[in-house]
Amino acid sequence: MLFEDVPLVPDFRLELKARKAGHWPVAGADEAGRGPLAGPVVAAAVILDPKRIPDGLNDSKQLSAQKREELFAQILATATVSIASSSSTRIDETDIRKASLDAMRRAICGLSIPASYVLTDGLDVPPGLLCPGQAVVKGDARSVSIAAASIVAKVTRDRMMARADSTFPTYGFAAHMGYGTAQHRAGIEKHGPCSLHRMTFSPLKKVQGVEIDIDIGID
């Protein structure tokens, strides 16, 4: 395919398309933390001000930690933002997909300005919304509203895991944010799991003999 290696750059076209169809305001929603072995999954919903869209919005995974922090501050200063999370306990009680979608639903419903339309990253629109929505594959690389939500969710979750590190210092949460790094797995092997660990995720499910296949996603 011609230009297949050219990276996507998010823009405001999907939001304007929804506005032309009579939907306004438009929120973008995304989550962070589907894949880690520990900690919550965090979702954010963002309604950008078209006249004050921060420069440099992109998929949070494409940005440095410093850039994410800078954009996080700008988004909170210029946009309508709502954040929600699902704990490791809720993830284990349901599954990561359901817990992620529920956190996203609560973030969207928590917006101080109700959204008329929602753009979500991935394959699913959360059930139970009071407005229509559209799931956008690679949405954080296509829509600036979704990109903004991805940044807010990622920075919020990283801060939560950094704080958790002071309570559970043996795992190194501040370094890996709960992902299954060698350091993290070594900590689990030496000290066992803590209350933040997702016991239905491999290799933790083996600790308590739970044999459940889970789609943990890649975020």
UniProtKB/TrEMBL annotation:
Organism classification: Bacteria, Pseudomonadati, Pseudomonadota, Alphaproteobacteria, Hyphomicrobiales
Organism in which the protein naturally occurs: Rhizobium grahamii CCGE 502
Gene Ontology MF term list: manganese ion binding; RNA binding; RNA-DNA hybrid ribonuclease activity
Family: Belongs to the RNase HII family.
Subcellular location: Cytoplasm
Name by which UniProt lists this protein: Ribonuclease HII
Known function: Endonuclease that specifically degrades the RNA of RNA-DNA hybrids.
Primary subcellular site in the record, as a coarse category: cytoplasm
Any single Gene Ontology cellular-component annotation: cytoplasm
Swiss-Prot/TrEMBL cofactor(s): Mg(2+); Mn(2+)
